[in-house]
Write a structure and sequence with these properties.
alpha/beta; Rossmann fold; 2 domains; seven-stranded parallel sheet; six-stranded parallel sheet; 17 helices
């Protein structure tokens, strides 16, 4: 089977697009021909992608074409876009999209005659109260298209666009339920979990951190991901456990347009750390692709998300922590409760509840940490193996190409 993956800014840094490369690799192992077509990356992001690619050399065999600067350029020059796509898609049996907006635009401006599959990994239509949180806590995010894409289109338009796809693959039940609430028929969607490429993890390499217990936050410095709540909670933790340490591993801005927003978030974080006198108990650091040394150095990963806006469902950092046998302390929001079982593989609190988050961090004694961590690791091994997921995806492709009306996979 010849398959084309399509998305925007596909790279190995983003949790939205890295799984596409890993799935493509496994499908190639199963005898399929897979290529990725994407919009371009800016030089900084391309350099980060190349660095990550060096750590996963088996992914270099996946051909990647970046014929468009961005979606706007693709739309503005439709004739040239069609010619390029006709060439890239020649002989393809199926087109698999990893960006709802990108594939919707593509299917509207280009007369595609291929079966279409869409992977949905973000909340297409976050609830209004999530946008109100963003407006109150971090209004600068609402200037960026990726954060407001689902705010304006009415349900009937989203449903119309989704029905253009022969099958929609959801990474979580949360996303599948969200699509059904928009009106997408049950038979049009299927849940297939996202996989993890464990070969890129190093379960032994670790940074040295003085103190105990050690907590880790890793990802984007974003108020929408609960950073202020985490700092307030950690202030209470230190009062009870003076030797406790918090590592904040900052992934940095994605694009040049994100740089001012990231700089502003970093300034606010530093002011909060100074105000709460946490300088000696908190380490603000940076990571590129290899997060293992920081995960291995901690006792638990803390990710107190406050909305579902702007990150994949489930957040891949949560799954990565669990793969390292670390318990996750997070919030009851989005797809997180599907993956973090409260009291079994981690602890869940309410979004924005700093006191509850502090209690969860304090109650995690060494015995509970080890037990929850092992439960988390077993859960990942049972549900997020790429070989199993590639086989399920392959069945979906077969159904779509044969014109089957119902999915053969009900994961």
């Amino acid at each position: 089977m010849k398959i084309c993956f399509f998305g925007t800014r596909m790279d190995l840094i983003s949790g939205h697009s890295r799984p596409a490369f890993e799935l493509a690799s496994r499908l190639t192992d199963r005898g399929h021909e897979v290529r990725i077509v994407s919009t371009s990356l800016d030089p900084v992001r391309m350099a980060r992608h190349e660095t990550a690619l060096a750590r996963s050399p088996h992914l270099t065999r996946i051909p990647v074409n970046r014929p468009f600067a961005d979606l706007r350029g693709m739309v503005q020059d439709i004739r040239r876009s069609r010619a390029r796509l006709d060439n890239l898609l020649a002989g393809c049996d199926l087109l698999h999209g990893f960006s709802f907006n990108a594939l919707s635009i593509l299917s509207l401006i280009v007369p595609l005659r291929l079966p279409l599959v869409l992977s949905v990994n973000t909340d297409i239509r976050p609830p209004l109260h999530d946008y109100l949180k963003a407006l109150g806590r971090a209004p600068y995010y609402l200037r960026q298209p990726q954060f407001v894409a689902g705010m304006f289109p009415p349900h009937f338009l989203l449903k119309f666009l989704l029905l253009r796809f022969d099958r929609v693959i959801c990474w979580s039940r949360f996303l599948q339920d969200r699509l059904r609430s928009i009106g997408l028929p049950k038979d049009n969607s299927v849940r297939i979990p996202v996989g993890l490429d464990k070969t890129r993890f190093n379960l032994h390499e670790r940074h040295k951190v003085q103190g105990s217990p050690v907590f880790l936050y890793a990802g984007l410095l974003s108020s929408l991901r609960g950073i202020p709540t985490l700092i307030r909670a950690f202030r209470d933790v230190v009062r009870v456990q003076p030797q406790a340490r918090l590592i904040i591993a900052d992934r940095g801005p994605h694009t040049p347009g994100d740089i001012p927003v990231h700089a502003g978030e970093k300034r606010r974080l530093k002011r909060l750390i100074a105000e709460y006198r946490l300088t000696d108990s908190l380490l603000l650091t940076h990571f590129e692709d290899n997060l293992s040394p920081w995960i291995n150095a901690c006792d638990a990963v803390v990710l107190p998300f406050s909305t579902t806006i702007g990150y994949s469902q489930p957040p891949l950092t949560i799954l990565e922590a669990m793969a390292h046998a670390k318990p996750v302390i997070s919030t009851r929001i989005g797809s997180i409760p599907e993956h973090v079982e409260d009291g079994i593989s981690g602890i869940l609190t309410e979004p924005g509840d700093a006191a509850g988050l502090a209690r969860a961090m304090i109650r995690l004694d060494p015995m509970a940490q080890r037990e929850m961590g092992e439960n988390a690791r077993r859960q990942i091994e049972a549900n997020h193996d790429w070989d199993d997921i590639a086989a399920m995806t392959e069945k979906i492709y077969g159904d779509v190409i044969r014109g089957a009306s119902t999915p053969s996979v009900q994961a």
